[in-house]
Amino acid sequence: xxxxxxxxxxxxFLSIKAYTQTSEDYFNSGxxxxxxxxxxxxxxxxxxxxxxxxxxxxxxxxxxxxNRYLKKYQVAITDYTKAIExxxxxxxxxxxxxxxxxxxxxxxxxxxxxxxxxxxNSMYAEVxxxxxxxxxxxxxFQSALAxxxxxxDIDPKxxxxxxxxxxxxxxxxxxxxxxxxxxxxxxxxxSYAQVYFNRGLANRKSxxxxxxxxxxxxxxxxxxxxxxxxxxxxxxxxxxxxYRGxxxxxxSAIDVNPSYTKAYYNRGIVKMMLLxxxxxxxxxxxxxxxxxxxxxxxxxRGICKESVNDYQxxxxxxxxxxxxxxxxxxxxxxxxxLYRKMNNYKAAMADYDKLLVLTPKNAEAYYHRGIVKxxxxxxxxxxxxxxxxxxxxxxxxxxxxxxxxxxxxxxxFSGAILDYNEAIKLNPESAEAYYNRGVFKGRLQEHQSSIxxxxxxxxxxxxxxxxxxxxxxxxxxxxxxxAACADFSKASxxxxxxxxxxxxxxxx
Length: 508
Hints:
The protein has 508 residues and is an all-alpha fold. The chain has a domain at 441-508: Tetratricopeptide repeat domain (Serine Threonine Protein Phosphatase 5, Tetratricopeptide repeat). The protein has 30 helices and no strands. Helix 6 runs antiparallel to helix 7, helix 17 (277-290) packs antiparallel against helix 18 (295-307) and helix 20 (329-341) runs parallel beside helix 22 (363-375). The longest helix is centred in the first third of the chain and has 17 residues, at 2-18. The N and C termini lie far apart (151 Å).
């Protein structure tokens, strides 16, 4: 009987020992759970492994990885640091600690960890890649390129390194080279949505808009919730003048991310292009709810309000844009135009003076200030500003037009004609330019030439009553009464009432 009990005891003891888990067992279990993305459960197992073996460096390292995925960054750093204390030559732990430090913006400290990892293992491709990412963030682009290239040299199939090098080349405006890197990354990893997206950016910058749209579409096939891809595809469609398609993409971006400020802003721009100012205002309102400190959105909403004759609302928005960005030249320009519409010429002049301090060679600013001076009868100052505008932008058609008008007011008809000669070179189909030049020529008694200009004006603008009437005046000056009366009659039929008076005197 005693022998029987002893055998039972041995069997019981052996059964207990068979089910006792080791630190390695807990580590392996934690690793498997990490692979299944069950990081909370993995941490429990790694902690049990450490409790059984306080020198288990790999368990600290992998618990750090799990904590990083759970965004417990300081806890993760503590785990990596403990792994390094146990195993001072643990290159992977240095690398992993560097990754976390990068995520919490301790960039210089991250570089120190990456440098140490490379000292320990000079063929560690992932560390070169990670160090390159940190250097990119610090805008040390050339050094980042060198790190990505080293990672690729070590591992020619490292798709992420090709993608990252492409991103840095994009930043350096090396779009062709960036696209080549993205192509290689996709050859290695076909279903890499972020690379399609990045290549789309490079193609758009290279003005390869259809290719960019194809890339964004491909990115969305793999990641349908990538709001940025919808937004950027919309931007490309705008450049192709596919405004309806762009709005559809911005709608999709907002459906995916209702707080996507940029998509509301971009959709507002397209609605402005389609003259849907009220719709644009609604989008800008939403964008400003999400980000109340964006000067450009206030400026654009001001333009829309001005376009629907809400001048006070527009003024408030321009003021806010300038308050947020005191160097916002476009807002000064727009507010100056608004002040001019409101007949507040003093305030308009102040805005253009400020604008010219900010941008001394701004042709548009000189042009608009010239108009203000024209309205306050500073004709000499007006000509000076229009001349400056033309100096800085010889292609500014409107400046020639206005300067010609002012020269006419100063009885410089020949000078006015010279300005309209230039205006017509820039815009050969401008009915107003031909009409005004015809008027000036008439004042110089160049009636035959003025008839030619009035005729050209009529060619580019149907039923141009003023041109028809003034051609009649030139015909009359040349004693071609029948032609003159025919023009006066046609002008009267178009409702040009001065023609009735002339007919009553000359065409009885």
